[in-house]
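Narrative of accomplishments. A recurring question from our advisory board has been how the design workflow behaves on a single, concrete structure rather than in aggregate. To address it, we present the structure tokens for one chain from the evaluation set, followed by the sequence designed for it. No filtering or post-editing was applied between the two.
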């Protein structure tokens, strides 16, 4: 698209600022609030790691409160794995029992960098076939299936 690498941070900053004007109209994906509540009710820790800024996330969560144990913002375009590692240590989340859920290839890459479970969701920004090509541990196409994918095997019916 003719954009130089050094221009990307300024473009991302501008996009985040523009996005803040629309945050009150953005809706969570259907079923997400109930899915997060169900996951937490089953004893799982549910958090959000996003490269979006705190202001935008706070604007969104004011309109759409979600049951979350933590929210981490501003992870940067190429440093999600470092922020994810820090969150895992901070919240005492063992790698073998933790899954990182995302809708982008770089989310799968972040999970892989930490040798943890990568769960891709097909309703976000990246086309499901592009996510599948990265061979995540699971590719979930419906929010309802997210609960079954993430609950410990002993909780499944």
């Amino acid at each position: 698209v003719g954009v130089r690498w050094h221009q990307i941070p300024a473009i991302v900053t501008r996009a985040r600022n523009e996005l803040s004007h629309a945050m009150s109209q953005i809706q969570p994906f259907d079923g997400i609030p109930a899915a997060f509540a169900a996951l937490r009710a089953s004893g799982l820790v549910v958090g959000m790691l996003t490269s979006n800024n705190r202001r935008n996330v706070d604007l969104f969560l004011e309109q759409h409160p979600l049951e979350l144990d933590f929210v981490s913002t501003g992870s940067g375009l190429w440093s999600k794995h470092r922020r994810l590692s820090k969150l895992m240590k901070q919240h005492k989340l063992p790698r073998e029992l933790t899954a990182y859920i995302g809708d982008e290839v770089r989310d799968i890459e972040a999970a892989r960098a930490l040798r943890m479970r990568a769960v891709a969701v097909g309703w976000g920004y990246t086309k499901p076939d592009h996510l599948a090509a990265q061979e995540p541990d699971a590719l979930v196409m419906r929010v309802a299936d997210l609960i079954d994918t993430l609950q410990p095997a002993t909780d499944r019916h």
